[in-house]
Amino acid sequence: MTSIGELNERSLHRALKERYAVAGSETEQVIDGFVTDVVADGRIVEIQTGSFGPLRNKLTRLLDAHPVTLVHPIARDRYLVRMADDPALPPTRRRSPKHGSVFDVFAALVSIPSLLTHPNLTLEVVMTVEEEVRAPSERRGRWRRDWSRVDRRLVDVVETHAIASMADLFAMIDASLPDAFTTNDIAAAMKSTRGLAQQAAYCFREGGVIEICGKDGRALVYRRVR
């Protein structure tokens, strides 16, 4: 059996599981040898706060016979909470200048892009306000203080994007792209880094919505699959 395990759950995962555990649903049910987060009206809800890679085998097995909703939270706004060395002192809290985007899901989706073509899989990207709790790291140096993330806490849910296919994600940037485009164009359309755009391009290719049509120097050129 494979599960995150209730004893090892962090606050964000637990809070989202409670949100999806509607009246009449069940949690921590064993289905086809795997422990699932939530089962509601015959649909399995799996909550994954990190990479989707560890879920590859689990999803592949479950999708053969069950509809599955894969829930992935992304912090649109984040507050950094730092614990003091002295437990008697209160933690500090400040707002991070960084803001998440729905397109950050590609960093997780790049592990299993082809699974999004499965008719039994729906991806829900939950945009949140979170607290990221950090504690002093035991490996910190003499002159530099390092911090380790020890928890993520849900403060609020801003909106949820239901993604049924890779085409749904591509539709969010389609109008901003020329007929032939590179990852630089994708990055501009997503207002993201080129690294994330490269992950997005790989996902779009695996999802069958774009294809390579040439090269511009060393850069691949893509076009839509009609």
Largest beta-sheet details: 7 strands, mixed
What is the radius of gyration computed over CA atoms, rounded to a whole number of angstroms?
20 Å
Number of domains: 2
- What is the CA–CA distance across the termini? 42 Å
How many strand units?
10
Structural class: alpha+beta
- Topology order in helix (H) and strand (E) letters: HEEEHEEHEEHEHHEE
What percent strand?
A: 35-45%
Summed up, the helix count is 6
Instruction: Kindly state the percentage of residues in helix.
Output: 10-25%
Rounded mean pLDDT is: 92
Ranges where pLDDT stays below 50 over 5 or more residues in a row are 1-8
Shape: globular
Account of the protein in words:
Helices cover 22% and strands 38% of the residues. Strands 1, 2, 3, 4, 5, 6 and 7 form a seven-stranded mixed sheet that branches. With 226 residues, the chain is an alpha+beta fold. The relative contact order is 0.13. The protein has two domains: 6-164, no CATH class; 174-226, Winged helix-like DNA-binding domain superfamily/Winged helix DNA-binding domain (Arc Repressor Mutant, subunit A, Orthogonal Bundle).
Q: Quick summary of this structure?
A:
This protein has 226 residues and is an alpha+beta fold. It has 2 domains: 6-164, no CATH class; 174-226, Arc Repressor Mutant, subunit A (Orthogonal Bundle), CATH 1.10.10.10.
Describe the secondary-structure layout.
Blueprint: H1 11-20, E1 26-31, E2 34-40, E3 43-47, H2 56-63, E4 68-82, E5 92-95, H3 106-109, E6 121-136, E7 147-163, H4 166-171, E8 180-181, H5 183-190, H6 194-206, E9 210-216, E10 219-224
Parallel strand pairs: 3-4, 4-6
Antiparallel strand pairs: 1-2, 2-3, 4-5, 6-7, 8-10, 9-10
